[in-house]
Amino acid sequence: MAQTVLKATRESFGEALCELAKENKDIVVFDADLAAATKTGVFKKAYPDRFFDCGIAEGNMMGVAAGMAAAGKIPVAASFAMFATGRAFEQIRNSVAYPRLNVKIAGSHAGISTGEDGATHQCIEDIAIMRAIPNMVVLNPADHWEMKAATKAAIEYDGPVYIRLGRLAIDSFNDPETYSFELGKGITLHEGNDVAVIATGLVVNEARKAVAELEKEGISARLINIHTIKPIDRDIIIKAARETGRIITVEEHNVVGGLADAVCEVVTAECPVKVTRIGVQDEFGHSGPAWELLDEFKLTQPHIANVIREVVKEK
Amino acid sequence: MDSSELRQLRILAAKSRLGAILGTYHAKSGHPGGSLSAADIFTYLYFKEMNVDPANPDWADRDRFVLSKGHCCPSLYATLALKGYFDWNELTVLRHIGAMLQGHPDMKKTPGVDMSTGSLGQGISAACGMALAAKLDGKDYRTYTLLGDGEVEEGQVWEAAMFASHNKLDNLVVMVDQNGLQIDGTVDEVAGIEPLDKKFESFGFEVIKIDGHDFEQIASALDKAKTVKGKPTAILAATVKGKGVSFMENQVGWHGTAPNKEQFEQATAELEAEIKRLEGEC
After folding, report:
1. Residue B126: what are its φ and ψ, rounded to 5°?
2. CA–CA min distance B186, chain A (Å)
3. Which residues of A does the annotation mark as catalytic?
4. What gap in Å lies between CA A291 and CA A301, rounded to an integer?
5. Averaged over A164-178, what is the pLDDT?
6. Of A94, A207, A268, B118, which has fewest CB within 10 angstroms of its CB?
7. What angle, rounded to 10 degrees, do the helices at B3-27 and B261-280 form?
8. What was the pLDDT predicted at B252?
């Protein structure tokens, strides 16, 4: 196992873009005055001729990116998740997704771990918004290695992709020697049959630690990492529902419209089981240090472990 | 432009209008008013100005046209059919289930349509992206976009205008079909966009004002735009909504209403008479 890397996925994303742009001359990057924060600034420095700052005008940025894609380029348009998917929703919907243009949308500072900036900047709806648009692929990588692989996959995929980036530096848990990313395929991180924990993004590692903690108590929880929210890996979810009979979802997003609902859509149609939804419980965040907020919103290891214990007890 | 060329353009424009009437009649819906006001511009772009090849609609080096006022596609479709992109009879199933011609332009369904549009304010941004791609690739194709004068009320138009001049997109021509009417009334009553020339000027555009039904003025404006370096050009074209059909001219009600059978027959008769008259001059 390689050494743990402590890095925000936005950093991993910026690095990956630079590496990919070396080979792929069609990659162009747009930002809306947040290049320093979304980490497209790294790309700007390496490839100034292929970077365009659109200023604080996200709607236009998505349209320009669409036009660029129509002319054969692979545009990456980055902003905070809030403004990329919120402010520019309709441009993404009508100018990018409807004509299925090859635009990659990167939403940074997603979730409450954005921290001190508070609720206006803590996007907890981006997955729901993007998931509801036909033709859109939605990715939510969980650590440094997964983000790098997901960025590569997004660039290689021909069509619109939304990729969610975090602000907070987090520990990596994947092993780059063995890790492999396949778009639309969930990854079983831990086998178990008492309950299935299905997690996505930044909180996967918290769920991983909780599952490891419970193993010592004799609770056998399966852990599945869903990095591709859409198209979701139906098979892995159905299998988990059949074999464990009980599902817990974990996400740093509103439980309305995000991973929880994506999983429920599969199990209600294929293999109905009870689903407990860990996530932001349909309320806004507020200012504070990221880890304190994650703890307050019950998205950290001890809280996840408690829910798993209760669910297994009740089962 | 000699008189014969001019006459040919007028015939093609009248046929484009005829197609818009035919399409909206068969669709029982659609937007004839703004289609008729823009027909001369479509005609000039596709028959005189743009370097395109109907046999190869996705040719990478073609000039691009983005209909930002996407609802006015009926006469664009007619012009594309006249140019040879697809069969004229497609207009008789405009907006029908399974039709190639959608209610608003769809680049994936219709040959010759360079961008899917319909939500106002968005086409101009896509046009900026195409113009920027040409610059980046060192290609000399040009990008044209047509906006409505109601459409310029959208904030995104001005985001795009800032972007176009900041990036010195002198290969971009933004045309505004100033027919003066929008759904809720005259543009002056509803929102008040004037002075539009000064607005575009202050956003860094070369501004040219023309009569949008005068082919010689359209020609000289587009020719001049090619000589402008380091900034985009805006051509503000004064037009008449409903142009060419007597009972539709300057009537706000014809923005988004299809002609009934009687109206269809009258409009068709008027336009066919005009075509016959022009052909008789040959």
Report:
1. -65, -40
2. 27
3. 58
4. 11
5. 97
6. A268
7. 170
8. 94
CB A191 within 8 A of CB A133: no
Average pLDDT, integer, range A225-248: 98
- pLDDT for the residue A113: 98
Q: How far is B142 from chain A (nearest CA, A)?
A: 12
- A73 and B CB contact within 8 Å: yes
pLDDT tens per residue across span A181-205: 999 999 999 999 999 999 999 999 9
**Angstrom distances, CA of residue A152 to CA of A16, A164, A183, A188, A260:** 7, 14, 10, 21, 26
Which of A95, A96, A102, A103 to probe the B interface (max B CBs under 10 A)? A95
In chain A, the domains with their CATH numbers are: 6-171 (3.40.50.970), 187-314 (3.40.50.920)
pLDDT at B93: 98
Residues of B in contact with A98 (CB under 8 A): 106, 116
What does each of the 282 residues of chain B score in pLDDT, given as a tens digit? 899 999 999 999 999 999 999 999 999 999 999 999 999 999 999 999 999 999 999 999 999 999 999 999 999 999 999 999 999 999 999 999 999 999 999 999 999 999 999 999 999 999 999 999 999 999 999 999 999 999 999 999 999 999 999 999 999 999 999 999 999 999 999 998 999 999 999 999 999 999 999 999 999 999 999 999 999 999 999 999 999 999 999 999 999 999 999 999 999 999 999 999 999 975
- The per-residue pLDDT for B242 is 98
Chain B residues whose beta carbon lies within 8 Å of the beta carbon of residue A100 = 108
Residue A121 pLDDT level (bands cut at 50, 70, 90): very high
| Chain B residues bordering chain A (beta-carbon distance below 8 Å) | 60, 64, 66, 106-108, 114-116, 118-119, 121-134, 136-137, 155-156, 159-160, 162-163, 166-167
Name the CATH superfamily for B3-280.
Thiamin diphosphate (ThDP)-binding fold, Pyr/PP domains (3.40.50.970)
Put residue B121 in one of left, alpha, beta given phi > 0 → left and psi -120 to 50 → alpha: left
Please give the pLDDT value at position B77.
98
Q: Which of B131, B136, B159 sits opposite A57 (nearest CB)?
A: B159
Please report, for chain B, the start and end positions of each structural domain, with discontinuous segments joined by +.
3-280
Nearest to B129 among A50, A67, A94 (CB): A67
Yes or no: say if A140 and A201 are a contact pair by the CB < 8 Å rule.
Answer: yes
Instruction: Return d(Cα B13, Cα A119) in angstroms, integer.
Output: 55
User: Contact B108/A100, CB-based, under 8 Å?
Assistant: yes
SS3 string, chain B, reads CCHHHHHHHHHHHHHHHHHHHHHHHHHCCCCHHHHHHHHHHHHHHHHHHCCCCCCCCCCCCCCEEEECCHHHHHHHHHHHHHHCCCCHHHHHHCCCCCCCCCCCCCCCCCCCCCCCCCCCCCHHHHHHHHHHHHHHHCCCCCEEEEEECCHHHCHHHHHHHHHHHHCCCCCEEEEEEECCEECCEEHHHHCCCCCHHHHHHHCCCEEEEEECCCHHHHHHHHHHHHHCCCCCEEEEEECCCCCCCCCCCCCHHHCCCCCCHHHHHHHHHHHHHHHHHHHHCC
